[in-house]
Amino acid sequence: MAARKWYDNEAIDKWGTVVMVVALAIIGGPTIGNAIDDPTAWNVTLVVIWVAALASYATSMLRRRSRTGKTETRGAVDPAAVPVSDVTTAIADTTSRVTAVKRLREMHPGLSLGDAAHLVDGRRH
User: Fold this and answer.
1) Distances, alpha carbon 22 to alpha carbons 2, 9, 45, 102, in Å
2) 108/102 Cα distance (integer angstroms)
3) How far, in whole angstroms, is CA 13 from its chain's centroid?
4) Would you give per-residue pLDDT tens digits along the chain (125 residues)?
């Protein structure tokens, strides 16, 4: 296994963008003040660039958080570890195979689609 790079780190993923947004906010105060006091084309351009960078970093932070929120809660689930009662409940609550597989995966988020379908098919027949 190859050594991880310094930037391939959960702490940097989590806090790197936050630090950049805070840094941009600190830099933005004087930039906006200069544009208000002396509204030259240059100062207004700097404010526009600052707003675009801040929006970009904030959007990046929200996207990263939403992605990591989904993946952190899911760990691989061994199909043998899924209780038969859960499979039976998923099948009993629905009339279609697809919905039963979906319900089973909602009960066990780390269960793969193929494994869930196999478990449902095994109990339905």
Assistant:
1) 33, 20, 21, 41
2) 10
3) 11
4) 456 676 667 777 777 777 877 887 787 778 888 888 888 999 899 889 888 888 887 787 777 666 655 444 456 888 888 899 989 998 987 888 999 999 989 888 888 889 999 999 988 76
Counting Cβ atoms within 10 Å, is residue 59 exposed (0-12), middle (13-18) or buried (19+)? exposed
d(CA 107, CA 52): 41
Rounded Cα distance between 99 and 90, Å, is: 8
Distance CA 23, CA 42 (A): 21
**CA trace torsion 101, 107, 111, 117 (10° rounding):** -10
Task: Give me the phi and psi of 62, to 5 degrees please.
Answer: -65, -40
- The pair of structure tokens assigned to 78 is 């061994």
